[in-house]
Design goal:
It contains 9 helices and 26 strands. It is α+β, with helices and mostly antiparallel strands. The protein folds into 2 domains: 5-223 and 338-420, no CATH class; 227-332, no CATH class. Strands 1-8-13-9-10-24-25 form a 7-stranded mixed β-sheet, covered by helices on one side. A 6-stranded mixed β-sheet has the order 2-7-3-4-11-12. A 6-stranded mixed β-sheet has the order 6-5-23-22-26-14, with helices on one face. Helix 1 (32-45) packs parallel to helix 2, helix 3 crosses helix 4 and helix 7 (334-349) runs parallel beside helix 9 (376-384).
């Protein structure tokens, strides 16, 4: 059985006088040729003279029929050693005036070019029809991907929406690259008869990635957009993904009975949200190490509730469950999403000096549909990181770490901040 991958490497620069730089360009021209010309002109005016080490390209599904022409046209006009990106339901970018924008439901191409001295990049393409065995060795997964794990501290990962066994793929890459923080997303769907991933000089399906080593790394920030309600429960009974019995101190009962008690403590507006915006937080570890000044608390992975059995009071959850695990009901709304994200971004701002750039992979369910106004996520980031270049896409699922493991999320903003890899 043959597994195939493609690997491109960029060896660390020995010219220590090179400075790390980020250049961005953004176009919403309806014509692809016009958009590429606009991007090239913006980069020229921004002072791009030398080849970039890495070009990140995100284009909206409005260009799906022309997707196979995107990279050839860009490579003919702009100089970069490596190219990677994907099609999205919308794009995030920074325009020539330095304004960060979320372009939804319209044509858009966002380009982020990075010059990263003393940094090694290993780009890989994966054909995902057949995955290595998760019960096999981690080396088998690393050989399949073709990128060497040693020294890898960050990874960009984009997956085609036609890929099957996405969770197994993510778990396998965690297995092979346990020290690499991974962010990215599931590319946007379209009706054209080709993939949604941009790699090298063409369009592919399966999965693509970039393993980063050396002087620059990506710090992930995963904002799941919910606020907890009610107590933290412990699972007393569960079968696979079906929650049967919960307990919290003296309280015990079915999930439905426990939720009814929680409802009594909520405001009328919160009770209305329960009708369509109720989720379950599933603790992936009982406790996470606290940031300085914070108390230890469970690290919750927010998951959809996919069914209720009114006869037994049980609830089906989009996550495998086990007895003894901690869970907590969660509500999602614009204010909760905004507050949680700002808290996480402020915490990030205290840990490092100003980042070189940020990448945002946001759920299609966020944006104007969640906040009622455009640029909800990027405006929040700019409150804390003024002037920071931002690029990215709206995805069909977001990839990012929670409690030390990488997960596929929904309704989430998965951020990556490019910062110096200081000891």
């Amino acid at each position: 059985m043959a597994w195939h991958s493609r690997l491109l490497s960029l060896l660390p620069s020995r010219r220590t006088s090179r400075q790390a730089r980020c250049f961005t360009a953004l176009s919403h021209a309806p014509s692809l040729e016009e958009a590429v010309a606009e991007l090239a002109q913006q980069l020229k005016q921004a002072g791009l003279r030398q080849a970039a080490d890495l070009a990140l390209v995100f284009c909206s599904s409005a260009y799906a029929s022309d997707l196979q022409r995107v990279l050839p046209l860009l490579r003919g006009a702009i100089n970069s050693h490596h190219w990677i990106g994907c099609c999205g339901g919308g794009v995030v970018g920074t325009d020539p005036q330095g304004q960060a924008l979320e372009l939804e439901h319209q044509p858009g191409i966002s380009l982020t070019l990075l010059q990263l001295p003393e940094t090694e990049l290993e780009l890989f393409q994966l054909e995902t029809a057949q995955l290595p065995d998760l019960d096999g060795s981690s080396q088998q997964w690393a050989d399949w991907a073709g990128a060497h794990p040693e020294g890898g501290h960050s990874m960009l990962l984009f997956i085609d929406p036609t890929c099957t066994a996405i969770n197994d793929l993510i778990s396998g890459l965690d297995y092979a690259y346990p020290f690499a923080q991974k962010i990215g997303g599931i590319a946007g769907q379209h009706s054209a008869n080709h993939g949604s991933l941009l790699f090298g000089d063409g369009v592919v399906d399966g999965a693509i990635g970039c393993l980063i080593k050396g002087a620059w790394r990506i710090d992930p920030v995963v904002a799941q957009g919910c606020k907890p309600i009610g107590p933290v429960y412990e699972i007393d009974q569960a079968e696979r993904n079906v929650l049967l019995r919960l307990s919290a101190k003296e309280q015990q009962g079915t999930p439905v009975a426990c939720l009814q008690r929680v409802l009594e403590t909520l405001s009328p507006a919160e009770r209305e949200l329960v009708r369509h915006s109720l989720f379950l937080g599933v603790a992936k570890s009982n406790f996470q190490l606290p940031a300085s000044g914070d108390s230890a608390e469970p690290a919750f992975l927010v998951r959809n509730l996919i069914g209720v059995d009114p006869r037994t009071g049980s609830v089906a959850v989009a996550e495998r469950l086990r007895v003894g695990q901690q869970v907590q009901f969660q509500l999602r709304d614009a204010e909760a999403s905004r507050q949680e994200q700002q808290q996480l971004l402020r915490r990030q701002s205290t840990r490092h000096s100003e980042p070189l750039a940020a990448l945002l992979f946001a759920c299609l369910g966020r944006g104007e549909g969640l906040y009622g106004t455009v640029n909800g996520d990027v405006d929040g980031c700019r409150e804390i990181f003024p002037g920071l270049p931002i690029g990215g896409a709206f995805c069909n699922g977001e990839i990012g770490p929670v409690a030390g493991a990488t997960h596929l999320h929904g309704y989430t903003a998965s951020w990556g901040f490019l910062v110096p890899n200081n000891p």
